[in-house]
Design a protein that fits this description.
A: 325 residues, mainly alpha, MetI-like fold, B: 2 domains, 0% strand
Chain lengths: 325, 291
């Protein structure tokens, strides 16, 4: 940084300021309009994504219609297609992951921002949480198959044996299933929630915390009654974005959820999600099935776009109004 | 007694007790959250490290009942496709970022484009694959490295763009003003002052995007598919052939009933995670040095 700065200064000292030549002005115009067109391209890219996927799905959308969203069978041979179990599985797994990952994520954000630790350890812990996000999801899937499932299977089956009348435990865990998938999913969204919550918590002016302490609160009274409510909008935005990540996550789910076309409340039964459906059926799909899968992709696209846009709006709104508080 | 506050923290006092309980819960949450990372790393080193040998890097994947084998072609395929993606995403992202941070600052278009980029970061990676399938595979009629690279580039563009924008914005405005005062056009200011200063931050963003893209599986599943052979084995026309990648190899082999393949999946995971972590840590060091 400093070297390029001093070069620049030297250059300026050698040649005293000169007005730009016509050639410079022309180049300036070209370069500026080039960058403008790339900004437009970003906008067009989103439109193109929606248009291309939607366009390919159009024949299937016309043929099946909205019955697609409520149908419960997926049978390419008979030409019967419905994705209600997948939609259910997508939301169920993501909500479970959101509860677990959200709780841990916010707890860690509090732990990292409220001076529980010396600064250096804080940075190490923060990097560890960030590295969690760097592990590819397919590796989490592999870990889930060979480490997590064998580990939780005895616990799950014991729960089923003793509390089998509770709908959540109504089946035994024979291998892949909803719970291991949601558990891995929660590990994957934890860094997102933790990072955004940390931003929200550290954006609170220190005056507010000092005022709370000055009133004689304990550390946790200040956190629960003053700091978390103040940061709540940012944290909520982080949760929504984490939820969006979970909805679209593919590999860990395709490997762990069991890919079984059923609607069940049980945590241990196999299930399916939209993303996993796409991942598994695309490579061998016939032309018509491809169009149907594109329809499923459109549904997934709209769900995730809606959730993400809501999350972004909440976060930008909380950033804007944060200073006024 | 009433007039002097009691500063002793007694367990018997409800508030202090509550504070201690909540602190304990938070600490255990933090520790619990670190367990998966260490468990994954431990398993990778134990199960992947067991299989680690030089053969892995030059041999081709084994067939069903074979012993030995490796995934040299998958490493090359991953690097090649991430390279294609970077070639598309880096110029795109940086040019758009220059507009967002500098030329179109505070304009309506910049705001919309920034919003689009943020929305794109949330698009599921599998949909990038679906898009590349519709736009490339269905048009060219074949699975190819190009389709895989394009799918990955869609995931890289927003990351590159948003981090480049941040680092351009961090350049002190005094520098800009000095350069403008010397009679530079805005383009000259950009190329000769701002970009060199913002470079470390932009490289960090590019490296993070590359690290993320090299671990992506979903966009490659049905765009690049997989191949048991080297890319370019049959000459340059091979670019339009299915291409192997580490991530898809891990996915394919993890579901196989053969011990050899599963061991290879762990070894490939170890190689992939090592690659991703090295890029990640390097980019972090670069960023910290800049600060």
């Amino acid at each position: 940084m400093s070297s390029s700065l001093s070069n620049q200064q030297q250059q300026n000292n050698d040649q005293i300021a000169v007005p730009p030549t016509p050639r410079d002005i022309l180049l300036d115009r070209i370069f500026r309009s080039l960058t403008t067109s790339f900004a437009w391209l970003t906008l067009l890219l989103i439109v193109y994504i929606v248009w291309e996927i939607g366009g390919t799905a159009l024949p299937a959308i016309k043929e099946i219609g909205f019955g697609f969203l409520t149908g419960t069978t997926w049978n390419p041979n008979q030409g019967e297609f419905g994705i209600l179990p997948q939609i259910w599985g997508t939301f169920y797994s993501s909500l479970l992951a959101l509860f677990l990952g959200g709780f841990f994520g916010v707890a860690i954000a509090v732990f990292l921002t409220q001076d529980f630790l010396p600064h250096k350890i804080q940075i190490v812990l923060k990097s560890i949480i960030e590295l969690l996000a760097a592990i590819p999801s397919v590796v989490y899937g592999l870990w889930g198959i060979f480490v997590l499932i064998p580990l939780i299977r005895p616990v799950a089956n014991w729960l089923h044996a003793t509390l089998g009348w509770v709908p959540f435990f109504s089946t035994s865990l024979s291998g892949p299933g909803m719970f291991p998938a949601a558990l891995v999913l929660s590990i994957m969204i934890l860094p997102t929630v933790a990072a955004i919550s940390q931003d929200a918590l550290s954006a609170i002016p220190s005056k507010i915390k000092e005022a709370a302490y000055g009133m004689g609160t304990t550390r946790w009274e200040a956190i629960l009654k003053v700091l978390l409510p103040t940061a709540s909008r940012g944290i909520f935005g982080g949760l929504v974005l984490g939820f969006g990540r979970a909805l679209g996550e593919t590999m860990a789910l395709a490997m762990l959820v069991g890919n079984s076309n059923q609607l069940s409340l049980s945590l241990f039964s196999p299930a399916d999600t939209l993303a996993a459906l796409l991942a598994l059926n695309f490579p061998e799909a016939s032309e018509y099935e491809t169009q149907v899968l594109m329809f499923a992709a459109v549904v997934l696209l709209f769900i995730t776009l809606a959730v993400n846009i809501v999350g972004e709006i909440i976060i930008s709104y909380s950033e804007r109004s944060g200073g006024k508080k | 007694m009433r007039n002097t506050p009691n500063f002793d923290k007694s367990f018997t006092e409800g508030r202090a007790l509550k504070s201690i309980i909540l602190s304990t819960i938070t600490v255990s949450c933090a520790i619990l959250a670190c367990i998966p990372l260490f468990s994954v790393l431990f398993m990778l080193i134990v199960r992947g490290g067991k299989r680690l040998s030089f053969e892995l890097f030059y041999a081709l994947p084994p067939t069903a009942f074979d012993t030995g084998g490796g995934f040299g072609n998958a490493i090359v395929g991953t690097l090649f496709m991430v390279g294609i993606a970077a070639l598309i995403a880096v110029p795109f992202g940086i040019m758009a970022a220059i507009y967002l941070a500098e030329f179109g600052e505070n304009s309506k278009l910049a705001e919309i484009a920034r919003f689009c980029a943020k929305t794109m970061t949330g698009i599921p990676s599998i949909l990038a694959g679906v898009l590349a399938y519709a736009a490339v595979v269905m048009v060219t009629g074949t699975y190819s490295a190009i389709a895989g690279g394009i799918a990955l580039s869609i995931l890289m563009i927003p990351t590159v763009m948003l981090t480049a924008e941040e680092s351009i914005k961090m350049v002190p405005s005094i520098m800009r003003e000095a350069a403008v005062g010397m009679g530079c056009t805005k383009t000259q200011v950009m190329w000769k002052v701002i970009l060199p200063v913002a470079m470390p931050g932009m490289i960090t963003g590019v490296m993070l995007a590359i690290a993320r893209a090299s671990g992506e599986t979903a966009p490659l599943l049905f765009t690049a598919l997989f191949s048991d052979y080297w890319i370019f084995q049959g000459g340059a026309g091979d670019i339009m052939e299915p291409t192997a990648s580490l991530a898809v190899l891990i996915y394919n082999f993890s579901g196989m009933p053969f011990e050899n393949q599963i061991e290879l999946a762990w070894a490939a995971s170890l190689v992939l995670v090592t690659m991703v972590f090295i890029i990640n840590i390097l980019s972090r060091m670069l960023f910290q040095k800049k600060k």
